[in-house]
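Work Package 3 (structural annotation) set out to generate three-dimensional models for the target panel prioritized at the project kickoff. During this period the team completed the workflow that converts sequence records into discrete structure tokens, so that structures can be stored uniformly alongside our sequence database. As a representative example, we reproduce one entry of 78 residues exactly as it appears in the project archive.
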Amino acid sequence: LRTEHDADNIVKDIFAGDGSTQQFTMTTTPSGVENIVVYIDGVMQEPTQNYTVSGTTIDFGEAAHQGARISILHGFAD
């Protein structure tokens, strides 16, 4: 994980779990699954264990509970 970029390059997407949606569309395409940081209700998620990425789509494999706060930080190595 490279962090020498300016903070201006970091993008934060926020989504809300609804109990049925498992895929969300991010605002940019990360250069790799390891170059984003994902939290659900403040709990950091493991790349490839808890989610996969294809283009701008992040897929959790199962839906987050109703009202879950999903935070995705990206732009670290893009």
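Residues 29 and 56 are 5 Å apart (CA to CA).
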